[in-house]
């Protein structure tokens, strides 16, 4: 029983190796990846935009309230931007991605397994890992940083709308603080690195759970739930590790 | 053939890259980092207080560069600060004074340069000889209390009892 | 007597505690339709997966066209698979591609034919199964019988030397059944294929099979040509062919007798 997670981790790692081995070929047949970028990236775009906007706006509201007790409202822009770019952008976008795109990937692959499509491909002498799994993994990995950047950018704009238009913070102070104190390498780049790591993890878990599931409807449902739960926890855990490394 | 999937993926990637560009240009200090080069000036301080790498170097309140490196010279027991000053601002007299100031009351510390009157100019990797260390709050309070005590002690013999 | 196309020797295979094959020897001859029959759950689908190399036996060997399937490296195995067609129980069509795209898929993957050539070949295969008008449909729009015919067309796309059918008759209405039976026979004879038909539908299967193998409880209990089987006097075979409810394969699932079980409840 205790051995089970270790066995799964082992299987998952071997699976990851095969998936990564199949990636170089994709650059020749990029059409497969584009199709997956659509179902994985484009379809998570809307929820990312809306969530980013709201998070940015709420941040501005909350921070303004506290900052005004210190007379430091001018730093609102800076705090909103830093919170988003360093943490909330990569992490929340990754959690949304896991819920929307990750679960869809697991369900799709699991269903293909249950309806013997994966077996069918094997018997047609086509490697399902290369044709089905690898494009989806790569699409997830590439989409994640884009989505995180969109989340942060929209969040900052949302914070601007609430802070400047609604709460009367000076527009000039808002932007100038951001441009002075947000460091491109330490804050923005680190956030992007985080989202690459999160994209790797979430995509790996999503495709593996689908590929490894029990091929019944119950099995697929369980695998989908596992994807959302495990990748969310993994993202939060990795975030702690990465933050400790990057921002100590 | 016109494939709507490819269009939407293109738009998605475009928006993503635009967001990255926005973050880089408008929401960080990337644009203010001059693409022209900088030259280095060093200065020694007894105490740099809270000065950090990438703290600002300002003249007349305008940022002209940043702190590149902070080292400790164990021979002279002083802090050695290397400043990276934008090439545009290359007319500093040799007797410029470098002091460490605090922006605001409890804000970040920066190096302020006050130009002197010398005709000869500072060059790449030359050193500023006149420096003023950072104000350390505890020392200031200590000085204040001490001067207060000596004031009252000198003016009268007002013993507590 | 020519060399059998497929030779299975001393096959042992277990899934968990279940011993699915317990020392099975079997030959499949070229150009003939071989039916593998037996009660449900005896691992007939597993046999096809073993032949195709998707599963590895615990013991024993399977030789296809003289090559030991499980000793082949991936490249060799894939090359062999291109010569095998397989028809899955559910058709296993790729649900995000149209009928046309599904059949074109193996052609696009494994050949360098031009688009017009591919189009011609796809339409020919579809015509052979009577569905050339359906090439624009999506798999979700097909009935079960139609999906299987499309899957057959796809299995034939690369002109394989053999086809394996996994329970092709299960759950079909009489007309679709008739169509499928006819197609399997016609395809086998016209294209000089070797067909392996796994099924428990006795009537349909026996109407087109040349050779019959009956598997029960992990062992090969009977084999022969169709005529031999139909006239056999083995109790096994009789029960299976006649569809008797009870016989060598018992009606009651083994366990305590009903009297014993009722006695327990009382106490």
Verbal overview:
The complex is a heterotrimer of chains A (248), B (161) and C (267). Chain A is 86% helix and 0% strand. In chain A, helix 2 (30-68) packs antiparallel against helix 3. Chain A has eight helices and no strands. The mean pLDDT of chain A is 90. By secondary structure, chain B is of the alpha/beta class. In chain B, a hairpin with a 6-residue loop joins strand 5 and strand 6 (109-114). Chain B has an eight-stranded mixed beta sheet, with no helix packed on it. The longest helix of chain B has 22 residues, at 4-25. Chain C is α/β, with parallel strands linked by helices and 267 residues long. Helix content of chain C is 37%, strand content 23%. Chain C has helices at residues 44-51, 74-81, 99-110, 115-128, 144-155, 174-190, 202-208, 226-230, 235-242, 258-266; strands at 6-15, 18-28, 33-37, 59-64, 67-68, 84-87, 162-166, 194-199, 211-216, 219-225. A six-stranded mixed beta sheet of chain C has the order 6-7-8-3-9-10, with helices on both faces. A four-stranded antiparallel beta sheet of chain C has the order 2-1-4-5, with helices on one face. In chain C, a hairpin with a 2-residue loop joins strand 4 (59-64) and strand 5 (67-68). The chains are: A mainly alpha (248), B alpha/beta (161), C alpha/beta (267). Chains in contact: A-B, A-C. The interface between A and B is medium-sized, with 30 and 25 residues.
Radius of gyration of chain B: 25 Å
Roughly what percent helix of chain A? over 70%
Rounded to an integer in angstroms, the radius of gyration calculated over CA atoms of chain A is 21 Å
Low-confidence stretches of chain B: none
Structural class of chain A: mainly alpha
Helix and strand pattern of chain A: HHHHHHHH
Number of strands of chain B: 8
Query: What's the SSE pattern of chain B?
Result: HEEEEEEEEH
Gross geometry of chain A: elongated
Could you tell me the number of beta strands of chain A?
A: 0
Chains forming the largest contact: A-B, 30 and 25 residues
Q: How is this fold's topology laid out?
A:
The complex is a heterotrimer of chains A (248), B (161) and C (267).
Chain A (H helix, E strand, L loop, with lengths): L2 H19 L8 H39 L7 H39 L2 H7 L4 H39 L4 H11 L2 H29 L4 H30 L2
Chain B lengths: L3 H22 L12 E8 L10 E4 L2 E12 L4 E9 L10 E6 L6 E6 L11 E3 L1 E3 L4 H19 L6
Parallel strand pairs in B: 1-7, 2-6, 5-8
Antiparallel strand pairs in B: 1-4, 2-3, 3-4, 5-6
Chain C lengths: L5 E10 L2 E11 L4 E5 L6 H8 L7 E6 L2 E2 L5 H8 L2 E4 L11 H12 L4 H14 L15 H12 L6 E5 L7 H17 L3 E6 L2 H7 L2 E6 L2 E7 H5 L4 H8 L15 H9 L1
Helix pairs in contact in C: 3-4, 3-5, 4-5, 6-7
């Amino acid at each position: 029983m205790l051995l089970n997670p270790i066995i799964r981790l082992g299987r998952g790692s071997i699976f990851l190796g095969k998936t990564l081995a199949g990636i170089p070929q994709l650059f020749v047949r990029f059409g497969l990846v584009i199709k997956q970028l659509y179902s994985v990236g484009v379809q998570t775009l809307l929820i990312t935009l809306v969530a980013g906007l709201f998070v940015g706006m709420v941040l501005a509201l909350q921070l303004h309230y506290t900052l005004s007790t210190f007379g430091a409202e001018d730093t609102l822009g800076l705090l909103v931007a830093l919170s988003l770019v360093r943490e909330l952008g990569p992490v929340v976008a990754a959690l949304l991605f896991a819920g929307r795109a990750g679960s869809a990937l697991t369900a799709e692959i699991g269903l293909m397994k249950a309806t013997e499509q994966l077996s069918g491909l094997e018997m047609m002498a086509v490697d399902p890992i290369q044709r089905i799994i690898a494009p989806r993994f790569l699409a997830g990995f590439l989409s994640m940083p884009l989505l995180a950047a969109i989340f942060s950018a929209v969040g900052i704009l949302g914070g601007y709308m609430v802070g400047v238009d609604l709460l009367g913070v000076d527009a000039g102070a808002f932007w100038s603080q951001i441009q002075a104190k947000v460091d491109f390498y330490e804050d923005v780049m680190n956030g992007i690195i985080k989202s690459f790591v999160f994209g790797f993890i979430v995509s790996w878990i999503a495709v593996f759970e689908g590929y490894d599931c029990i091929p019944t409807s119950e099995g697929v449902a369980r695998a989908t739930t596992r994807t959302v739960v495990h990748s969310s926890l993994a993202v939060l855990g990795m975030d702690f590790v990465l933050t400790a490394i990057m921002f100590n | 053939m016109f494939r709507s999937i490819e269009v939407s993926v293109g738009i998605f990637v475009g928006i993503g890259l635009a967001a990255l560009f926005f973050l880089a240009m408008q929401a960080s200090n990337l644009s203010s980092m001059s693409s022209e080069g900088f030259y280095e000036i060093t200065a020694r301080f007894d105490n740099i207080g809270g000065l950090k790498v990438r703290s600002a170097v300002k003249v007349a309140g305008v940022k002209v560069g940043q702190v590149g490196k902070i080292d400790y010279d164990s021979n002279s027991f002083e802090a050695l600060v290397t400043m990276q000053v934008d090439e545009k601002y290359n007319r500093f007299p040799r007797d410029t004074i470098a002091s460490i100031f605090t922006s605001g009351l409890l804000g970040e510390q920066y190096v302020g340069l006050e130009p002197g009157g010398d005709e000869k100019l500072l060059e790449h990797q030359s050193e500023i000889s006149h420096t003023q260390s950072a104000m350390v709050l505890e020392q200031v309070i200590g000085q204040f209390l001490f001067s207060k005590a000596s004031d009252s002690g000198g003016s009268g013999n007002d013993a507590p009892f | 007597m020519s060399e059998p196309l497929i030779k299975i020797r001393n096959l042992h295979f277990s899934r968990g505690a279940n011993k699915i094959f317990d020392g099975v020897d079997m030959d499949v001859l070229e150009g003939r339709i071989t039916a593998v029959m037996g009660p449900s759950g005896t691992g007939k689908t597993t046999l096809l997966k073993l032949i195709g190399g998707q599963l590895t036996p615990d013991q024993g060997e399977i030789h296809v066209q003289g090559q030991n399937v499980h000793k082949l490296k991936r490249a060799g195995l894939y090359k062999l698979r291109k010569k095998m067609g397989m028809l899955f129980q559910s058709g296993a069509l790729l649900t995000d591609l149209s009928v046309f795209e599904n059949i074109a898929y193996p052609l696009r993957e494994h050949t360098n034919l031009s688009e017009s050539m591919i189009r011609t070949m796809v339409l020919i295969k579809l015509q052979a199964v009577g569905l050339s008008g359906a090439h624009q449909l999506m798999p979700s729009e097909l009935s079960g019988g139609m999906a299987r015919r499309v899957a057959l067309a796809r299995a034939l796309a690369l002109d394989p030397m053999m086809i394996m059918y996994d329970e092709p008759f299960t759950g079909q209405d009489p007309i679709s059944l008739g169509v499928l039976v006819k197609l399997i026979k016609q395809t086998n004879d016209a294209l000089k294929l070797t067909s392996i038909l796994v099924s428990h539908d006795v009537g349909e299967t026996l109407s087109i099979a040349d050779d019959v193998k009956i598997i029960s409880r992990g062992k090969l209990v009977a084999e022969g040509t169709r005529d031999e089987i139909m006239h056999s006097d083995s109790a096994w075979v009789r029960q299976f062919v006649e569809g008797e409810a009870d016989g060598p394969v018992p009606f009651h699932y083994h366990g305590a007798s009903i009297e014993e079980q009722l006695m327990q409840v009382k106490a």
